[in-house]
Design brief:
The complex is a heterodimer of chains A (109) and B (116).
Chain A: E1 4-7, E2 10-14, E3 19-25, E4 32-37, E5 43-49, E6 52-56, E7 59-64, E8 69-74, E9 83-90, E10 97-99, E11 103-108
Parallel strand pairs in A: 2-11
Antiparallel strand pairs in A: 1-3, 3-8, 4-5, 4-9, 6-7, 7-8, 9-10, 9-11
Chain B: E1 5-7, E2 10-13, E3 19-24, E4 31-38, E5 42-50, E6 53-56, E7 65-71, E8 74-79, E9 88-95, E10 106-107, E11 111-115
Parallel strand pairs in B: 2-11
Antiparallel strand pairs in B: 1-3, 3-8, 4-5, 4-9, 5-6, 7-8, 9-10, 9-11
Classes of the chains: A mainly beta (109), B mainly beta (116).
């Protein structure tokens, strides 16, 4: 069974700070998703990656397959980045998507 | 282009009643996913369809839950009879359908269900 863990569970930072959210998983995987859930409840897919690094605007996602670890970074954080960030992985057989419990990020102006 | 459409957005019902949630995926997408989100358990995959066929229903909690996809543009999730522990937000998502779980999913706004 794939165990997906995120850290920290909650993170509060000042506007402008560099943010890092971590995701670890327990089995070999083929890809990892990062999702953003807005305070209103809507869910947006930010990244899907299977190796290396992806960048979109101020967001950067990295993955280390050997270490079974992924990070989501936010540069020059802004209050509108306040949301819950969730990682999710299918297991190696591309079966059964397992979600982390999420990291609640609050950016204070 | 319209995104994933779900209806109703909110549903309040009494225990024992039948509840039907509806989803219209993005046109051209061949995979559809139903998820449930609760405070206790977070996001959970309930069922995954590809080309209207259920591929993975291992997340469906019990026989009270059923899902159908009669055509490429419509899916339903039915709970009969409903129980208070079914109270949750139910999300539908769709994707192109060529890569299983290894492709970007687009989420609907969710249906917030409250069973009294």
């Amino acid at each position: 069974k794939n165990e997906v863990e995120q850290s920290p569970q909650n993170l509060t930072a000042q506007e402008g700070e560099f943010i890092t959210i971590n995701c670890s998983y327990s089995v070999g995987i083929s890809a990892l998703h990062w999702l953003q859930q807005h305070p209103g409840g809507g869910i947006v897919s930010l990244f899907m990656l299977s190796s290396g690094k992806k960048k979109h605007g101020r967001l950067i996602a990295t993955i280390n397959i050997q270490e079974k670890h992924s990070s989501l970074h936010i540069t020059a954080s802004h209050p509108r980045d306040s949301a819950v960030y969730i990682c999710a992985t299918p297991n190696f057989g591309n079966e059964k998507l397992t979600f982390g419990t999420g990291t609640r990020l609050t950016i204070i102006p | 282009d319209a995104g994933v459409i779900q209806s109703p957005r909110h549903e309040v019902t009494e225990m024992g009643q039948e509840v039907t949630l509806r989803c219209k995926p993005i046109s051209g997408h061949n995979s559809l996913f139903w998820y449930r989100q609760t405070m206790m358990r977070g996001l959970e995959l309930l069922i995954y369809f590809n080309n209207n066929v259920p591929i993975d229903d291992s997340g469906m909690p019990e026989d009270r839950f059923s899902a159908k996809m009669p055509n490429a543009s419509f899916s339903t999730l039915k709970i009969q009879p409903s129980e208070p522990r079914d109270s949750a937000v139910y999300f539908c998502a769709s994707s192109l359908g060529t890569g299983g779980y290894q492709e970007t999913q687009y989420f609907g706004p969710g249906t917030r269900l409250l069973v009294l």
